[in-house]
Each structure stands twice: as structure tokens, then as C-alpha cells.
Design goal:
It is built from 2 helices and 4 strands. The protein is α+β, with helices and mostly antiparallel strands and about 80 residues long. The longest helix is centred in the middle third of the chain and has 16 residues.
Length: about 80
């Protein structure tokens, strides 16, 4: 597991904001971040998938692999093999 830089979360939130997912990413600790969904009225499977894909793409471009928790709310990163 690699450390998650706070600056990356700022940039990831900007990328999420460009789409229509309405999800935000928050720092939990040095190795785990949390994807916060929008209010219930805005939650859809498509928006959730967009947020997960955006997160994967963001870190893939930086040479990292994202691992999500079972519920999809938390993630950690590791170097790409």
C-alpha cells in the first residue's frame, strides 16, 4: 500500500467535479481515502460507476493501482505491477 497525497485528492475532486458524479473524495488517513456519495436523491449506479472509474483513471495515470473496499466507499493505492 502506498501513501495517498492530499494534493492528489484535491486534483481528483477537481476531476470528479468535471463530470456529473457529484461524488467527493476525502482523506481518511495516510493510506486510505473515502469516496463520499451525494445525497440519496442524486445517487445512481451510473454516477457511482463514473466516480469509481474516474478514481481508477486518475491514479492509473500516476502509475498506481486502486483497490476499493467491498462497499466501494474506501480505497487504497499501490504501485502498478
Amino acid at each position: 500500500m502506498s501513501d495517498i497525497a492530499y494534493a492528489d485528492l484535491v486534483l481528483l475532486n477537481a476531476a470528479l467535479g468535471q463530470g456529473d458524479s457529484r461524488y467527493h473524495v476525502r482523506y481518511k488517513n495516510e493510506t486510505i481515502a473515502c469516496i463520499e456519495p451525494p445525497g440519496e436523491c442524486c445517487q445512481t449506479d451510473a454516477r457511482r460507476q463514473e466516480a469509481l472509474d474516474c478514481t481508477r483513471d486518475y491514479y492509473r495515470q500516476r502509475g498506481s493501482l486502486v483497490s476499493f473496499s467491498q462497499d466501494g466507499l474506501y480505497f487504497s493505492i499501490s504501485p502498478l505491477p
